Amino acid sequence: MCTCTTSSRISTAGRRVQSTCRAVIVRSGTSARILSRQRNDTDRFPDVARAAAAQLDDGAVVDGELVIMVDGRLSFDALQRRLVTTPAKARQMVASIPASYVAFDLLAYGGVDLRTQRWTTEAMGIEGLAVKGASSRYVGARREWLKVMKRRDTVEVICGGVIGPIERPEVVIAGRYLGGDLVVVGRTVPLTDAQSAELAAVLRPARRNHPWPDEISSQRWAGRDSKKPLTKTRPDDVVEVSADAAIQASQWRHPLRYAGTAETFSPMTSRHFPSPSDR
């Protein structure tokens, strides 16, 4: 449909499924409009609008994701800054942090509505695959893509605390050292009874100088009444968890899965673990 000839790319590569912002591009006349999921015009991405006007044919409508790459990675933080800034500041950010657009659905072409057409697609994403049935049609305002996650990596983290009593931990609060400070980088899904017993056997209460708060949100994104007491433990125990590739602000966005204690790692070794974003 089009080629990538500018820093603001219009691509028919697969759908990005993390750190993105859903948007529809409408090419009409000599310009292109970018519409949000709520069907509002957004003028925070003039670089993408210019690229769309130059590369798409008149009458084309595409559905896809706005993305921003920083150091070779999708950056949700940079995307959020672009979304909430003023149009004037957004124009200033174009040169230093250009945006891109990944198109995965062609909704109209040459004035013809293609949403009723049958088609086959398989899209590669950062976290996995987003697939759709070969006989399905495009249906607005409905979730019909199936997200298939790719394999998870096993990594080591510090057990800096748990939700639940220390003798019967329910959730591991994972930490790593970042700039010399022990910071929260994620949390696990609820432990099974066997996992809880295994972990409880090695945990010890924290000393008074533990840097973490007395309460912590029960989920990655805090909501109403989501605070729970944090049982702090000595940051000497290293555990293995399985994690995916979705990382934002040096934290895993999705829950980790406890895999066991990592007895081969000493407390001194744990001080040299990189943050998730350095993986």
Quick structural overview:
The protein has 279 residues and is mostly beta strands. It is built from 5 helices and 20 strands. The strands form 5 sheets. Strands 1, 2, 3, 4, 5, 6 and 7 form a 7-stranded mixed beta sheet that branches. Strands 11, 12, 13, 16, 17 and 20 form a 6-stranded antiparallel beta sheet that branches.
Account of the protein in words:
With 279 residues, the protein is mainly beta. Strands 1, 2, 3, 4, 5, 6 and 7 form a seven-stranded mixed beta sheet that branches. The two termini are 35 Å apart. It contains five helices and 20 strands. A hairpin with a 2-residue loop joins β18 (247-248) and β19. The radius of gyration is 23 Å and the shape is elongated.
What number is the mean pLDDT? 78
The rounded distance between the terminal residues' Cα atoms is 35 Å
Rg over CA atoms: 23 Å
Main sheet attributes: strand count, strand direction, barrel closure: 7 strands, mixed
Count of DSSP-assigned helices: 5
Model regions low in confidence, pLDDT < 50 over at least 5 residues: 1-18, 120-126, 267-272
Number of strands: 20
Helix proportion range: 10-25%
**Form type:** elongated
